[in-house]
Specification:
Strand content: under 5%
Number of strands: 0
Shape: rod-shaped
Largest sheet: none
Order of helices and strands: H
Helix content: 55-70%
Number of helices: 1
Length: about 55
C-alpha cells in the first residue's frame, strides 16, 4: 500500500484519484491507530500465554 500526500515538490509520487486530503487523514490516523493495535495484540497474547495450553 502506498499513501501519498501533496507536500513534496517536485512531485515524486502522484496518485491517480487526487485524494490528497484523504491520504493525509489516513496517514495521521494510522500513526495513532497502529501502535494501539499492536498494544492490543500484545495484551491478548499475554492473556493467551497466561492460560497455557487449552
Amino acid at each position: 500500500m502506498i499513501a501519498a500526500t501533496l507536500v513534496q515538490h517536485p512531485r515524486y509520487v502522484d496518485v491517480g484519484d487526487g485524494r490528497w486530503d484523504e491520504n493525509a487523514a489516513f496517514i495521521a490516523m494510522a500513526r495513532e491507530a497502529v501502535p494501539r493495535l499492536i498494544g492490543e495484540i500484545r495484551r491478548l497474547r499475554e492473556i493467551l500465554d497466561s492460560r497455557g495450553d487449552l
